[in-house]
Amino acid sequence: MRKTVFVILLVFVIWPLTVSNIQAAQSFKDVGSTHRALVSINYLAEGGIVSGNGNGHFLPDKTVTRAEAATMIGRAVGLDGTKRNTRFHDVGSQSFASGYIQSAVDAKIISGYVDGSFKPNNPVTRGEMALLISRAFHYNATNTASAAEALMKRGIAQGITQTDFGYTYNIKRADFAVFLARSINYKLRISPQVSFNIETEVTASSLNVRTGPSTAYGAVGSIPKGTKVQGSYIVGEWMYIRSSKLEGFVNSSYLSGTDTPKPGENNGQSVASQMIVIDPGHGGHDPGASGFGLKEKDVVLDTSLKVKALLDKTPFKLTMTRETDVYPTLAKRVEIAKAAKGNIFVSIHANKFNGAANGTETYYYSAATNPYVADSKLLATKIQNRLLAAWNLRNRDVKKGNFHVIRENNMPAVLVEMGFIDNEKDVEKLKSPEWRQKAAEAIFYGILDFYKEKGFNVTSYYSIK
């Protein structure tokens, strides 16, 4: 029996972690009951992530320094904060932030300057804040612009105006607390929705579910061994999960198949060594199938480029057989894949028959002399399952096929037929940019599912959208 992995969008709350629950946790003399950052500050204070100045004040309007930013983020993701010597001549071993600074540098969350200094008292700008959070929480941004986009897309941050993120503005402690708390707990975000794409199982005899990513946060209940749960995202060594009865953070060490990635790392050289080849079918003078005013070559190119955008946010290497409206021959597509030393090959297509046929199917090549049959079938199955969950079309199954691009390749290879372009029901999905994005995400998750089953650590990439 085929097991379908559903992408579950959270539209209701199982355990009521509400604003009022968090608001009652802590109080500072200078953070009143109507302060815009009250809930976020109290939430972080409950977990020991932020603290006051020793006399009950939080100083919400004070500018965040680099030392403070490293400390708060370090505490949030569970870095080692033990005071120690650092590589910087201006950060002594007895500095309150020395341990977190060195740990954050080692994790590639923050860096020093070419003169060997860290400048711990320098202010942090909003752009720098976005980049630090992106690195710590695996949002895979490469610069301040993409980091800001990642935070705004997730409902973590907003611009100072509709057209200006305010990259160069110094950030206050209150605002930093808001953005950090939203990164940790999605229920505090502007649009509190996340996807639960990680299928896992409890391995401890009884696993506590907490309101935050440390034992400092209260437990809302426990889950017994063997319970299947769905995970959404990782904060340090903790995963946000949901079961049939509970929702919250659990220590990922007690979940099956979820080796926790270190913040800022690429989650293993083995992942970075993998070359994925994406092949948008047809192109140029070959339109492929057509129906209802659509051409297959356009549909599959758009979907493939959306897959590329997702893969570009991971350490995987990627080769496309085409990125524009050109036609590489079937032999050329295989040649491109082989020259790139691809590890897997995914060809993306749309189907056509008589207007009545409909559904999704995925092909792999099977022959006694082919050493990649098992892996090709596994990859096809993972992608097929994800597409069925995303599009909910008729399941036409995983099938053996004799197509040139999968037959002649020297790597695990599949050919995906997303739907029938001449079918009235299927074409509603194929013609929609939003549904093509869902298909791209399904193919991406299917690829992750394949690598996860092969023993690769890809857990953090399921949060990518």
From TrEMBL:
Database matches in SUPFAM superfamilies: Zn-dependent exopeptidases
PROSITE patterns named in the record: SH3B, SLH
GO cellular component, one term: outer membrane-bounded periplasmic space
Keyword annotations: Cell wall biogenesis/degradation, Hydrolase, Signal
GO biological process, one term: cell wall organization
Coiled coil: none
Stretches that traverse the bilayer: none
Record-linked Pfam families: Amidase_3, SH3_3, SLH
MF (Gene Ontology): N-acetylmuramoyl-L-alanine amidase activity
InterPro entries xrefs: MurNAc-LAA_cat (IPR002508), N-acetylmuramoyl_amidase_3 (IPR050695), SH3-like_bac-type (IPR003646), SLH_dom (IPR001119)
Residue ranges of domain SLH in the record: 24-83, 84-147
Domain SH3b: 197-259
Annotated PANTHER family: N-ACETYLMURAMOYL-L-ALANINE AMIDASE, N-ACETYLMURAMOYL-L-ALANINE AMIDASE AMIC
Record's protein name: N-acetylmuramoyl-L-alanine amidase
Organism of derivation: Robertmurraya siralis
